[in-house]
UniProtKB/TrEMBL annotation:
Gene name of this polypeptide: tsf
InterPro entries: EF-Ts_dimer_sf, Transl_elong_EFTs/EF1B, Transl_elong_EFTs/EF1B_dimer, Transl_elong_Ts_CS, UBA-like_sf
The name this protein goes by in its record: Elongation factor Ts
A single cellular component GO annotation: cytoplasm
Keyword field: Cytoplasm, Elongation factor, Protein biosynthesis
């Protein structure tokens, strides 16, 4: 049957798909718009599968936090190009996915894909975005944080890096919390305290330090002691509360918090595009 230009335009306006794709879908569906939309979705799924080996290292990190700072969500949505990430429609869709995660207390990407939004699962929404945009698009990370203390959210300009920091009590000055969240963003600590560092990593660092000292000709017993000194420096670089505070290197993060009568950090989450797959 003959497909009019007006019908093609109507389907394109409904779906955002390309003109030729819309014309082919309408022809295949004998002019039935619902069937044509279904055909486009199926084509979107095929596009997604074809692009499964493509790198999706661009995108957005977004956060939402409630008014009393006791619940927050952090979401990473990925695409292939920065051009798409800066598109307003992509950003609006990402925001709606974040809100769905927050409102449904979702703490992982797989569960978020099953949530319905405007009559479709988020997984189907992603398929439609792939068909429309022509890039691999996926939600890689969803984090839910709750606390009896205080949560602080920090999104670095450009939305490629985000942090949620949990403080063990009431934090009256949010700027202090932002400072610490920015510290996490910039300095990439492994954990809040030494106890949180993986023991195998500690053993490896100790072994490397000792081997270096032995290679320098140090006796075994001296190498053992000096390696422990190097391990202390490792903790100062990789443990948040022991790190030098970026805004004032004369104090550690813990000393900065104590000087300002602020509660200590209890936990943190850090998401950076392409680093948390």
């Amino acid at each position: 049957m003959s497909i009019s230009a007006a019908d093609v335009k109507k389907l394109r306006d409904m779906t955002g798909a390309g003109m030729m794709d819309c014309k082919k879908a309408l022809s295949e569906a004998d002019g039935d718009f619902d069937r044509a939309v279904e055909i486009l979705r199926k084509k979107g799924q095929k596009v997604s599968e074809k692009r499964s080996d493509r790198e999706a290292n661009q995108g957005l990190i977004l956060s939402r936090i409630n008014d009393d700072k006791t619940k927050a969500s952090l979401l990473e949505i990925n695409c292939e190009t920065d051009f798409v990430a800066r598109n307003q429609e992509f950003q609006d869709d990402a925001e709606s996915f974040l809100n769905a995660a927050f409102e449904n207390d979702i703490d992982n990407a797989d569960d978020l894909l099953k949530i319905e939004l405007d009559g479709l699962t988020i997984e189907k929404h992603l398929e439609e975005m792939v068909g429309k945009i022509g890039e691999k698009i996926e939600i890689n990370n969803v984090i839910l944080a709750t606390t009896e203390g205080t949560l602080i959210s920090y999104i670095h300009p450009g939305n490629q890096l985000g942090v949620l920091a949990e403080f063990d009590g009431d934090l009256t000055d949010e700027e202090i919390g932002k400072d610490v969240a920015m510290q996490v963003a910039a300095m990439k600590p492994l954990s809040v305290t030494r106890d949180g560092v993986d023991s195998s990593l500690v053993e490896k660092e100790l072994e490397i330090a000792k081997e270096q000292l032995l290679n320098e000709g140090k006796p075994e017993h001296i190498a053992e002691q000096a390696a422990k000194g190097k391990l202390r420096r490792f903790y100062e670089e990789r443990v948040l509360l022991e790190q030098k505070f970026v805004k004032d290197n004369s104090v550690s993060v813990q000393q900065y918090l104590e000087q300002n009568d602020a509660p200590l950090v209890k936990s943190f989450h850090r998401l950076q595009l392409g680093e948390n797959d």
